[in-house]
Structure formats: structure tokens, C-alpha cells
TrEMBL record:
The keyword Magnesium does not apply. InterPro entries: FAD-bd_oxidored_4_C (IPR004113), FAD-bd_PCMH (IPR016166), FAD-bd_PCMH-like_sf (IPR036318), FAD-bd_PCMH_sub1 (IPR016167), FAD-bd_PCMH_sub2 (IPR016169), FAD-linked_Oxase-like_C (IPR016164), FAD-linked_OxidoTrans_Type4 (IPR051914), Oxid_FAD_bind_N (IPR006094). Its cofactor is FAD. The lineage of its organism: Bacteria, Bacillati, Bacillota, Bacilli, Bacillales. This is FAD-binding oxidoreductase. Transmembrane segments: none annotated. Pfam families: FAD-oxidase_C, FAD_binding_4. It comes from Geobacillus jurassicus.
Length: 481
């Protein structure tokens, strides 16, 4: 094999290469371009370098070096984040965790597993499925996103309605702090550990408090039975009311997903069409699971509620193959937008379920106001909306219009007592929108916590909180914009 050598006099690149090895660092512009953004593609910035450590010791050594030399740095998993969390805004050293991808330990007796942060989400379920277990959080990107990235974003997924999001499935973390020290949090199964809930704090902190290098997760036993329903509606109001009535009837489906007409047009034009009628206003994909006894009754109740709300057609999956096709159609929904639009922006608002019809009406108004189509694919059961703003970045001004339309959608969610993010995080994308739901004092309380962990603010600076200098002051190092 040809031996590579570092072709730069930059002392920082040379020092980092000594830590991770010459074959585990990128520093040439043409290589760095692949790391200039994540799934939020409207901002692009080149990193200083990308390093690929293979152990906690290497991560800690890289972090210590950056800390001592005031180099901004950030962690990156698969780069599927939709809010710009892994974008190197300040020319960061990107610490890619993709080579730390081992399944370290499976303990079925205690229903847990230990993984490295670069382990891909779906691989975990695939690794234990033959023994009757699975890992519940199932973001639609689960075939490629990493569990480290899921922890940082507190990722959700279609089946999180019943089983809870990532934070409900994390039992322990090993974390490299921004000064290079390594700490362990939780992991020993104590239900109410003494001290602050650092596990809760770190999960969802969007890579601003530390770099996760090991994760202990909860595994669940496969449900005994599962049934899936597909329901087509001529009116969005009827579909929305069906969602509300299912939940208020005391049924907690494993998943309760909605797609509107524009979304259906996209998924039917993309890789996994299933023959949804294109003239319906909305569809619901509903799954119930649990012990076999009682499942049929729940399905009967769901069918009755659908009929009460004038469902045009409703069917129950007749085979595992049919169910899998329906889910593939739904789970590839974001990517399917590429079939009907050159670019799209995914939003991630949360609303009380009861306000669904009025917020969807408001989103339709926003779509008209900005002259941009907006598709809706979302976790209706927990009120987590994903308006997808379709645009063409090659047309002057359209990206800005799309961003403004997306922001207005979030304002509409906040206005009914909802939130600006349900699972994708704040990142760069929604940091100004934090003001829709938090006062200056509330934001300051959060940045104060960040400053305890990350006092030099070298780790993932410029994310999560509004730009300083207006009302809220946050510390920014001189190297950071
Ligand atoms: C098609 C598609 C569908 C999606 N569907 C869903 C969905 O259903 N639900 C959902 O919640 N999300 C979804 N997402 C968003 C995304 O997949 C998740 O946010 C995921 O958790 C990101 O994981 P990642 O490995 O790609 O992380 P990255 O994008 O690489 O990083 C995300 C953030 O985590 C930080 N980070 C990464 N690794 C670590 C680590 N080891 N330690 C500390 N910080 C770290 C980064 O600095 C960054 O801030 C979707 C994305 C796409 C493209």
C-alpha cells in the first residue's frame, strides 16, 4: 500500500495527524468539500480538517489539542442532521465518529447493549432481531444515521409515539468533555441516580456539551403482534379529527403518521410507490402492537373511528410484505421530495394535536403567501409536524423565501402553544426561532449551563442559541464568528 504523507506545513494538521495517524485525516480542500454541510444544505462552510479517531483516547487527545490551541471543533456522525448541527461554521476541526462503529456488548438478560457512537441505528435492531429484541427509536434515516448523532439530537421516529424518543432509551454515556477529560454518566442501571440528571442534559444537547464516545442503550422485546392500517381521506379535517379521536379513545398506537396530498404525489413518484390515490387530501398510517389478545379489538375501534370521519377507503395490511411496503413508502418520504422539487427544506414544529386542522390551514396560507409548495409528512400522533418547503435554489431569492416560509410555519406552531422542534434539533437553522418560545432569561439559563461544560465555547459554537449581541450575551472566542 502506498504510504501517504502530510503535504502541508500547517503545524496543527501535522499535530492532529500524529494523534490519529496520517490515514485518518483530511485537510485538502477537495476532500473537505464533502464535509461543508449536513442535511441542512443551505449553509456551507469548509472545515479546517476532518479527523477519524478510532478510540476514546484518540478523541480525547484531539479535543485536548484543540482546547490548548484554541481551535474550534465539533463532532460529526453520518451528517444526516437537518438543522445544520454538524456544519463547521467557524472552520472547525471536524471529529468524525464514523470509524468508532463497533457493537461492544449485548446483554439480553438485562435488555441492554453498549455501542460506539458511529454505530448505525438500524444495525442495532438487525443485530438482535434474531433473538427477539429491537432498539425502539427509529428515525426515518435509521439505515444510515449514527446512534451518537441520535443521542446528540434526541432523535425521534415513527414508533416513538408509544415507546418514547432517544432519551427514553439511553442508560449510560461515556463523554469527552470540551477540555479533553473523559467522564462516564449512568450505565449502572440505578433508577434514580443521585446528583443532577446529566444523562438527560447531555441527550439532546446537540453536540455542544461534549463528544459522546460510548453509549449504553435499552433493548426492547419484540411485540407479540402487530397490525397496520392505511386510511384515505377526502378532507384533511377528517384525518386530523380521526387522529384526535384515536388518542382520546385511550388507544396508544405504536405509530400514527399522516401525509397530505403533495407528500403523496412525491412518494408515489419516487422509489417505493404503493398506489395511493393521488386525489385524496390526506392519508393516515396507523400501527398498533403489543400482546395478541386485544389487538383485533383495537383495530376494530380504529376502523370505526375512521368511518365516523368519512374515510374514503381503509385497509389492514394482509402480510408482513405489504406492511413493509407501506413503511418504506412513508420512511423515504423526505427523499421522495426530490422527485417533485429540486430542493426542499424540512421543518419540525410541534403542536397540540387538537390544533392540527387550524395549523395545517395556516401552513397552506403561508404556502400561498410565499408562492412555494409545502408538503406535510408527519408524526400526527404526537403532533410533530414536518412541513417540507419545496423550492429551487437556482432561482434568485427562492432560498431566502423558503427559509422565511419555514420560519413562519414554526411561528404558527409556537402561536398555538407548540414548539419549534420535535426531533431534528435547533442547530443553525432554528436558533433565532428559539425566541418564539423562550424569554431572554430562559435562554441565558441554558447558555450558562453550556458555559460550565464548554467555557471556551470552542465546541460547536454558533449553534442552538440565538446570535449574541441583541438581548442575550454569550461567550464567543475570538476565532469564532
Ligand atoms: C431522510 C431523513 C430522514 C430523517 N428522519 C428523521 C426522523 O424520523 N427523526 C429524527 O429525529 N431525525 C430524522 N432525521 C434527522 C437526522 O437523521 C437525525 O437528527 C440523526 O439523529 C442525526 O444523526 P447523524 O449521525 O447523521 O448526526 P450528524 O448529522 O452527523 O450530527 C448531528 C448533531 O449531532 C452532533 N453529534 C454527532 N455525533 C456526536 C457525538 N458522538 N457526540 C456528540 N455530538 C455528536 C453533531 O455535532 C451535530 O450537532 C432525518 C434525516 C434525513 C436526512
Amino acid at each position: 500500500m502506498r504510504k501517504r504523507s502530510i503535504a502541508t506545513n500547517d503545524p496543527h494538521i501535522q499535530a492532529l495527524a500524529r494523534i490519529v495517524g496520517e490515514r485518518a485525516i483530511l485537510y485538502r480542500k477537495e476532500d473537505l468539500m464533502a464535509y461543508d454541510c449536513d442535511g441542512f444544505t443551505v449553509h456551507r462552510h469548509l472545515p479546517k480538517a476532518v479527523v477519524f479517531p478510532t478510540s476514546t483516547e484518540q478523541v480525547a487527545a484531539v479535543v485536548r489539542y484543540c482546547h490548548e490551541h484554541d481551535l474550534p471543533f465539533l463532532a460529526r456522525g453520518a451528517g444526516t442532521g437537518l438543522s445544520g448541527g454538524a456544519i463547521p461554521l467557524n472552520g472547525e476541526v471536524v471529529i468524525s465518529l464514523t470509524r468508532m462503529k463497533r457493537l461492544l456488548h449485548v446483554d439480553l438478560e438485562n435488555r441492554r447493549a453498549v455501542v460506539e457512537p458511529g454505530f448505525v441505528n438500524l444495525k442495532l435492531t438487525n443485530s438482535v432481531a434474531h433473538r427477539g429484541y429491537y432498539y425502539a427509536p427509529d428515525p426515518s434515516s435509521q439505515y444510515c444515521c449514527t446512534i451518537g448523532g441520535n443521542v446528540a439530537e434526541n432523535a425521534g421516529g415513527a414508533h416513538c409515539l408509544k415507546y418514547g424518543v432517544t432519551t427514553n432509551h439511553i442508560l449510560g454515556l461515556e463523554v469527552v468533555l470540551p477540555n479533553g477529560e473523559v467522564i462516564e454518566i449512568g450505565g449502572n442501571g440505578v433508577p434514580d441516580p443521585p446528583g443532577y440528571d446529566l444523562l438527560g442534559l447531555l441527550t439532546g444537547s446537540e453536540g455542544t456539551l461534549g463528544i459522546v464516545t460510548k453509549i449504553t442503550v435499552r433493548l426492547l422485546k419484540n411485540p407479540e403482534a402487530k397490525q397496520t392500517v392505511l386510511a384515505y381521506f377526502d378532507e384533511v379535517e377528517d384525518a386530523s379529527q380521526t387522529v384526535s379521536d384515536i388518542i382520546s379513545a385511550g388507544i396508544v398506537p405504536a405509530a400514527l403518521e399522516m401525509m397530505d396530498q403533495t407528500a403523496i404525489e412525491a412518494v408515489e413518484a419516487a422509489a417505493f410507490p404503493v398506489g395511493h390515490p393521488k386525489d385524496i387530501a390526506a392519508l393516515l398510517l396507523i400501527e398498533v402492537d403489543g400482546i395478541s389478545a386485544g389487538i383485533d379489538e383495537q383495530i376494530d375501534d380504529i376502523l370505526a373511528i375512521c368511518r365516523r370521519h368519512h374515510v374514503r377507503e381503509v385497509k389492514v395490511a394482509q402480510s408482513e410484505e405489504e406492511r413493509a411496503r407501506w413503511w418504506a413508502n412513508r420512511k423515504t418520504g423526505f427523499g421522495a421530495m426530490g422527485a417533485i422539487s429540486p430542493d426542499y427544506l424540512v421543518q419540525d414544529g410541534v403542536i397540540p394535536r387538537s390544533r392540527l386542522p387550524e395549523v395545517l390551514r395556516e401552513i397552506a396560507n403561508i404556502s400561498r403567501k410565499y408562492g412555494l409548495r409545502i408538503a406535510n409528512i408527519f408524526h400526527a400522533g404526537d403532533g410533530n409536524l414536518h412541513p417540507l418547503v419545496l423550492f429551487d435554489a437556482s432561482k434568485p431569492g427562492e432560498t431566502e423565501r423558503a427559509l422565511a416560509a419555514g420560519s413562519e410555519c414554526l411561528k404558527a406552531c409556537a402561536a398555538v402553544g407548540g414548539s419549534i422542534t420535535g426531533e431534528h434539533g435547533v442547530g443553525i437553522e432554528k436558533k433565532e426561532e428559539m425566541r418564539f418560545i423562550f424569554t431572554d432569561e430562559e435562554i441565558l439559563a441554558q447558555t450558562a449551563i453550556r458555559d460550565v461544560f464548554n467555557p471556551k465555547n470552542l465546541l460547536n459554537a454558533g449553534k442552538l442559541f440565538p446570535t449574541p449581541g441583541r438581548c442575550v450575551e454569550t461567550k464567543m472566542p475570538s476565532t469564532v464568528k
